[in-house]
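Final report, results section. Input specification for complex C-07:
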Amino acid sequence: MLSKLIKYDIRAGWRDFVGTYMAIILAVLILPVIFKYPGNEIADAIAGSIAIAIIIGTIVMVIINLFTIFNTNVFSKEGYLTMTLPVKSHQIVISKLLVSAMWIVLTGIVAIIGLIIFTVLMNGVQIAGFTEAIKYMMSILGGQSILAVILIIIALIASVVKEIAKLFLACSVAHLRQLSRFRIPVGILSYFAFSWLEVAILEFLSKIIGLFVNSDEIVRQINLINDTGDIQMYFGLFSGVMIFGILYALALITAYSMANVWILNHKLDLD
Amino acid sequence: MSIQNSSQNIETLYNEQINKSNDDINKNTELVKISDLTKKYGSKAALSNVSLTLEPGHIVGLLGSNGSGKTTLLKILAGVIMDYSGTIKINGEKIGPSTKALVSYLPDNTYFSPWMRPLDMISLFKDFYSDFDEQKCLDMLKRLGLSEKKKIKTMSKGTIEKFQLCLVMSRNAKLYILDEPIGGVDPAARDFIMDTILMNYTEGSTIFISTHLISDVERMFDSVFFLKDGEVVLEGNIDDIRAKEGKSIDQLFREVFKC
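Structure output:
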């Protein structure tokens, strides 16, 4: 049933998202044509700012769109279809999270491609220039560069999916019947309350970890790395921090999703 | 062990077997069992200690004026309201995926997404409901004169409602829950809807219909429940009620729900 839910969730959203991606590519193709004044730094700066604004705006729009899809699909009239399907609530939540993660990754890829196209067209940079730059960065980072990149990408995705899971839960809290008169402020406040809770838990965990780990030793290590300039020494610490961050994000995704499932199973009340 | 104790043990075992048989019999005759169902919105009780039983193979009317709690009761049975007190069992199971697989629900509003076409909905129903009869649905679409590839949002409101009914009645469900299927439609459409319901429901299934338009549907019902201010005020076999009260259900409704 989960695969069927994923199929229909993708079908429900692909028109909007693919349309958005095509708009980004069109914009980064048109901007250099409008703003191409060789040697004019102001024009370059304006064009660059607009391109970045378009991409950031698109990412924000995608996140808002994902929230709207969840809200509409579960709590509006479409909820009469979704919530009467013979599937478990956790399957509905997992499906929406997985599909959201997919759209976020695709949006990231399209944004990077858009930036590359814009840079190539605007400044005449060759594609080969990008590959050389990437090779140079990899050589600085050394043998563990691929692992570092993978960890960064996974951490980024986990972090964004965690925000989406938090948004979904805030949406469900806002739809509790007891709070229906104050839906929008409750939704917003819930989101910020969960964010505060995340930080509070992280601080608590840091204090717990501090009881077992000698923080002076960590500071000494960091100073040693700074003094010697040996980037590869970073990796042990870097990997540890990244992995901790990924696990923390996964734990929060699980917690938010379980809370969401509990609300759907016990407090659902469609208008 | 003494003879007296042995006799008592045998009697206990016998009574347990009898009770188990009775439970099995009751389970077989009770498709829906609702006990002490209460649903409150703030201080107002939309449903108050409602208890009722539905048996398989009946067409049952849930009658009441606007605001009597009919839609709330049906939404709880369908699983789109989960915040209530009391117990509900459908085919011996609590409300969940297994009961949703047995229940075909027609809400009092349409639930289609703007991007959908009839073909998309038919595909969705086919994927999720093993009891969905695709050919039956396509035949009904044809009778409606609808193209399965035309976007649902381009159809008129009445046509969309009819299509939604076709989807619901194309399932071979154990329980059909229809919330005000003829509310807000013209008399010709009402006849179409009633004929669709009667011609396409599965023998041995139960249809639970809520309505306040009694005269149009009275002829269909085997039994009725009158719901007033969230409470069941009258229930029973329709012929027995008519014989006892000496009037039609429509006349009785007007008396019970007189403003």
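The mean pLDDT of chain A is 85. The interface with chain B takes residues 1, 4, 7-8, 11-12, 15, 72-73, 77-81, 83-88, 177, 264-270 of chain A (CB under 8 Å). This concludes the modelling results for the funded period.
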